[in-house]
Amino acid sequence: MSEEITVDGSAEIANDNAPVQQIPIVDFSAWKIKGDLSSRMQVAREIADACRKVGFVYIVNHTIPDSLIDEAFQWSKQFFALSDEDKMTAPHPDGWAVHRGYSWPDREKVSHITTEKDEDQRAKIMEALEYKESYDMGSDKNSDQPNQWLPDEVLPGFRAFMTRFYWDCFSVTSDIMRAIAVGIGLEDEDHLLKKHSGHNNQLRLLHYPKVPLEALERQTVSRMPAHSDWSSITILFQDDCGGLEAEDPSQPGRYIPATPLKNAIVMNVGDLLQMWSNDYLRSTNHRVTIPPLSTSLKGSDRMTRERYSIPYFIAPDPTALIECLPACMSEENPPKHAPITQVDYNRMRASMLY
Ligand SMILES: O=C(O)CCC(=O)C(=O)O
Ligand SMILES: [Fe+2]
């Protein structure tokens, strides 16, 4: 038996005191059956529970068809297979203010915002080459973050597909946010969603090229250093390479592999939802490191596999105020964070990235 903290910060007795060792899997199919209130509640509770204990959850039987996910990865592969010259027709603008377009290897510095606490490790992370390339997109209606599309003749159909995929991702994440709202006891399932028009989200294609395993082992090269996301929530699709890991909140410094599960959504809580919920839900640190099935070669010839992933970050509208939800505070558990707008929080975090 152990003491557990409830949504308003009071304590209750619970049986489950086992160390968190894996990322829970939630079957989302019952959420879609509108009349079935008790099954919907069960899904909502399972997701909220995972967000509280681990901050990461696999969601299966969601509404994004497998064929669409496959197609997204095919487009991503085609994009990254373009010549450097072609990719550079849509470069990430200088500076941090616009986070759109193509970032070549080591351009974006997640090391600058790493959550790694060990001093020696931090020093290594700062020196390592961040060997990933990315392409970021958003809503065409977001004038603060203008898209950097490729000229259509460079990859015909790419823009149309990605625009559609962006809104399909928003549709499923809207449902996930509704479930989270219900799961943490909010009366209005749209409460969180009301601050999210969808125009401030970010769809990102990521490619981690193959790299000598020794370079990752010696940490002269990194894939993605440990960090938290500054979204409300993030969903992610990944190929079968592996290497994504989430820090175990109950054992800081210990990482749990987010082993690829075909077509599952990997969902994680971002900093904003953690702040909204007064730290009840966890914005868990995560990183991309050596994939488990890395090599068939020997010595310095050993190569890791290349890896593709597609995260989608949900953010509230820029002027939305992130302040503690009344349901998540009490006299004994007052708000832990000063209210802040999305745009201010984003500025604080993004300004260190480029
Ligand atoms: O590539 C991945 O699996 C993780 C990406 C990620 O954490 C991010 O872009 O914030
Ligand atoms: Fe992340």
UniProtKB/TrEMBL annotation:
GO molecular function annotations of the record: metal ion binding; oxidoreductase activity
Keywords per UniProt: Iron, Metal-binding, Oxidoreductase
Start and end residues of each Fe2OG dioxygenase domain: 199-316
Family: Belongs to the iron/ascorbate-dependent oxidoreductase family.
GO terms for biological process, alphabetical: small molecule biosynthetic process
PROSITE patterns reported for this sequence: FE2OG_OXY (PS51471)
Coiled coil (residue ranges): none
Acetylation recorded as keyword: no
Protein name per its UniProtKB record: Fe2OG dioxygenase domain-containing protein
